[in-house]
Amino acid sequence: MTSLVFASGKGGVGKSTITLNLSLLLAQAGKKVVIVDADVQMANIGLMIGVDKTPISLNNVLREENVITEAVYEGPAGMKYVPASISAESDNLNYSVLKKAVKRLEEIYDYVLIDCPPGLGPDALAAITSAKEMVLVITPEPISLADALKVQILAEKNNVKINGFVLNMVLGEKNEIKPRELETILKLKNLGVLPEDLEVRRASALQKPVVLSAPSSNFARALRSLATQITGEQMQAPTEKRGFLAGIVGFFKNLFGKK
Ligand SMILES: Nc1ncnc2c1ncn2[C@@H]1O[C@H](COP(=O)(O)OP(=O)(O)OP(=O)(O)O)[C@@H](O)[C@H]1O
Ligand SMILES: [Mg+2]
What we know:
Layout lengths: L1 E6 L7 H14 L4 E5 L7 H4 L9 H5 L10 E2 L5 E3 L14 H12 L2 E5 L6 H9 L2 E6 L3 H16 L3 E10 L8 H8 L3 E6 L2 H8 L4 H4 L4 H14 L12 H12 L4
Parallel strand pairs: 1-5, 1-6, 2-4, 2-5, 6-7, 7-8
Antiparallel strand pairs: 3-4
Helix pairs in contact: 1-10, 4-5
């Protein structure tokens, strides 16, 4: 149906984290969703979910050895993904294949989410121009803004529609760049603010996406609002785990036949 690319220019601002966790929220909401890991030199998505046995990757597709539908694997919560090669084989890649491959996925899935590599190289350009719309991921610091501006210019030159920006890793400190300032400078819509959250790093270390391992975390909560803002889809609230005390109370209520 549609495709969205998450781009930033600067590395390490949270593109893969946002793409992966957003895909899971959409899958939980009953949508057919696939991620394309377009970071063909530094595969991210497979590592983030702890899977490395994916013999056919986007690299094979860009080498025209396989078609994209042969490179789709099943991830958590029923989401699907196209991995990049973990061995960083970047020879003979024909980036012009990507757009057509994404179009093919749009025919099958409700959402095709593309995880863009950092930088402004041919790999990033191919990812940006393969999607119907782009979301800029920014962290509240000047270098991230400077790089985001470069990607914005590149996208506009190539007639890519920019949906807006997401401000990630926000601590709420005085000297951070504020969403209002970004709206004025970039002339783009603020799609949402995501907090710096230790749960994200914990989840990443365990190779478990944070919306699954800590669905009540501040990051997961903020991402659910962001998901609704970007897609218009209603997200499922997390099922709260019954605490120890609630468990004991439930046990005695059952024992004495109380409602
Ligand atoms: N809101 C957040 N709070 C805390 N840690 C975060 C947050 N978002 C991302 N991270 C962490 O920051 C690191 C970089 O995130 P990620 O890999 O998603 O960035 P990226 O933009 O995809 O990087 P690259 O450009 O290298 O592909 C990871 O360790 C991730 O767990
Ligand atoms: Mg990444």
